Amino acid sequence: MTYQPHAEQPYPPNNAPQPGVYGQPAQPGYANQPGFGGPPPAYGAPTPQPAYGAPTQPPPAYGALAPQAPKKRKKWPWILLAVVVVLILGCVGLFTLVIGGTKNAVETLDDNVSGKNAVAGAMNKPARDGKFEFTVKSMDCTKTSVGKSPLAVKAQGTYCIVSMTIKNIGDEAQTFDGTSQKAYDAKGTQYSDDLEAELAVNGDSSTFLQQINPGNQVTGKLVYDVPKGTKLTTIELHDSLFSGGVKIPLK
């Protein structure tokens, strides 16, 4: 049998129907599809809509940051800071006012009392300050140690020992405090009472360091550790730490 080649079949045109699967109608060519040169949709036909849930905007490119709404600034930290500043300034002002007023009151009281009692007389004459009446009897600046061994106390320089009586002229008990009593030399240098030496020199006279009831009187000694050769000229006595004080010449 002689081989007979098949005759070449021409390709169908672009707008010709394409053969389909057996039993199915042929599909139209690309020319009849929208967007490929086919006819536009009929007038009044609905515009194709995206499927439900499909995004209406294209997603951002990979790595791009999604736009964010601007953040609102919180106002409460600034309000709290302003309140704290106002409170601090108010406290500082109040503290200054109180300290200034207290200082002025103390200075006024000191001026009033000291002005009247700057010099109350001489030794062996009563002088008053507050609830106490003082009578200075003598002063001895010759000792360099006081007290009995082994409790004796030695001076850095020399001890000036002032003997006196203290009477409570008030209406309630009052404690005499030796550390509130000051002594001065001719140049105005101030010296404080030596508490350790005061305890040693007074020995068993414990009433001198305790409360004194109204109307009672005690005798005791104040001790000042001063450089050798120093001469005390004035003693300033107080019934308490904040009283005006009374000055008595030591001569």
Q: In words, what does this structure look like?
A:
InterPro entries: DUF4352, Immunoprotect_excell_Ig-like. The chain crosses the membrane at residues 78-99. Keywords: Membrane, Signal, Transmembrane, Transmembrane helix. With 251 residues, the chain is α+β, with helices and mostly antiparallel strands. Among the domains are: 79-117; 127-249, Immunoglobulin-like (Sandwich), CATH 2.60.40.1240. It contains two helices and ten strands, in the order H-E-E-E-E-E-E-H-E-E-E-E. Strand 9 (232-237) and strand 10 form a beta hairpin. It is rod-shaped.
Jot down its keywords.
alpha+beta; 4-stranded antiparallel sheet; 2 helices
Give a brief rundown of this model.
Residues 123-245 form the DUF4352 domain. This is DUF4352 domain-containing protein. The protein has 251 residues and is of the alpha+beta class.
Layout of helices and strands:
Layout: H1 76-117, E1 127-129, E2 132-146, E3 153-168, E4 174-175, E5 182-185, E6 190-192, H2 195-202, E7 211-212, E8 217-226, E9 232-237, E10 246-249
Antiparallel strand pairs: 1-2, 2-3, 3-8, 4-7, 5-6, 5-9, 9-10
Instruction: Classify the beta-strand content into a percent band.
Output: 25-35%
- The CATH topology annotation of the domain at 127-249 reads as Immunoglobulin-like
Element-level helix/strand string: HEEEEEEHEEEE
Helix content: 10-25%
- The stretches of 5 or more residues where confidence is low (pLDDT under 50) are 101-115
How would a crystallographer describe the biggest sheet?
4 strands, antiparallel
End-to-end separation in angstroms reads: 170 Å
The CATH class of the domain at 127-249: Mainly Beta
CATH architecture of the domain at 127-249: Sandwich
Helix and strand composition category: alpha+beta
Number of helices: 2
Topology, number of strands: 10
Strand arrangement, largest sheet? 1-2-3-8
The overall pLDDT, averaged over residues, is 75
- Basic shape: rod-shaped
Rg computed from alpha carbons, rounded to a whole number of angstroms: 55 Å
